[in-house]
Amino acid sequence: MIKLRIGLALAVALFSAASAVAVNNGDVPINTPASARRMIEDLNRTYGEAYKGGKTFLAKLAVIEGKLKANKNDSAAAEALTRLIREASLANPLLDGDKILVIRRTREANRSLNSHTSATIKRTGWDNEISELSNLRGEVKVRTVYRHTNKSVMKHMMLHFDGKRIMFSGAGANGSWAVLDVGTDGEGLRELTPDDQKDVQWFDACYLPEEGYIVACSTAGMQGLPCENGGKPMVNLYRVDTRTKQVRQLTFEQDSDWHPRVHHNGRVLYLRWEYTDTPHYYSRYLFQMYPDGTGQIEHWGSGSYFPTAYVWARPIPGDPSKIIGIVSGHHAKSETGRLLILDPALNGARSISTPTPFPPSRPAACRRSPAGDATWSATSTTARAAGRSTPSARPSRCRRSISSCPCAASGRAVSGRSAWSTFSTTWPRCTPTRSTASSSPVYGRRSCR
Questions:
Q1: Which of 143, 181, 169 lies closest to 235 in space, CA to CA?
Q2: Is 47 within the bounds of a domain?
Q3: Which residue in 100, 117, 245, 291 is a FRET match for 35, CA 20 to 30 A apart?
Q4: By residue range, what is the domain housing residue 240?
Q5: Contact predicate 58/41, CB 8 Å
Q6: Has residue 382 been placed in a domain?
Q7: 84-139: per-residue pLDDT in tens?
């Protein structure tokens, strides 16, 4: 089965060799021989022989570049450069799967400002659909996968981990924003979020690895933007059981949290905005948390005024730390800007570059030595000296503590086993217990260990 991939941007170049392959805002040279050379050389370095035609592309580029240096108004050479950029970019091995999912629309459906939410977008009257593009390196073929009813808007598309279902935001059964999904064959539409309150909007969600659960943005908190006298709804993040429609609020900001996405390490990335201090329009940082809402901590950006907004950030497949997103402004044209790759690991970000399981295992400093005696790990400051007849004191951060377990703190049933106390970004291990009548995890009953 050929894998489907989601296109992050409009693939204009796919449809016409004469079409522009990027949008120029006037201050950055684009689609030049120099930029084409950087692209081709990068693909050569990254993929080697798998990037077919790489050396040939550079030879063709050298000829075109010579003609443009001789006459910058050589239209034939300019057209040849456009065709070469298209051919060289589409030779990227990542496109060997030859299928991409996109949302096609006749006009933009963006929120009114980057500081607003999708609640400002009208929900009906749109000509849009989920489409499958194939034969990417030839005459592109387009297949309609799904068109939502009543000309509903369609946004925030995401492919399920198994490649069999597509999630998106659109008008739900009650006419409000909802999170829905449909099979890749266009059948089996499901509404994943609650529809019992018409004044509550749901959108911009991501699947969680735990089957049946998603994290979604919602206006359920009924909060408004302070600088507009509360006139524009803000959103926080909620964990939703798509089968029972039970929800749990995960974030509690005064303003909005946007764009949840699961990182390779199992944590959820999201863009957090807290309306604080004079430069409040710069206080939008990329955050991370565990899927149950614990461990909320900055991922990148708290030490920088740039970028003002980093929207639609998501991890890059095959790389443990790099993320890609769109750099935009506060009052700028919303949801648009420049694609930017960030690597928080280059700045020594804590444990970002190393994928870790959720929940994490016992801290290394709390493990016994490989020798099998009573020595605590050498990473502890109280490690037992070699040859001592009695073990050293257990490090304080390795002591058992019932009170530190979030299951106990929330009043849920505790099996009597205690949790490793929290320190740094390591959190207690809580695992779902199962009821005798069902094999599904029971949210209200958890054991801490």
A1: 169
A2: yes
A3: 100
A4: 99-347
A5: yes
A6: no
A7: 999 999 999 999 988 999 999 988 888 877 777 888 888 999 999 999 999 999 89
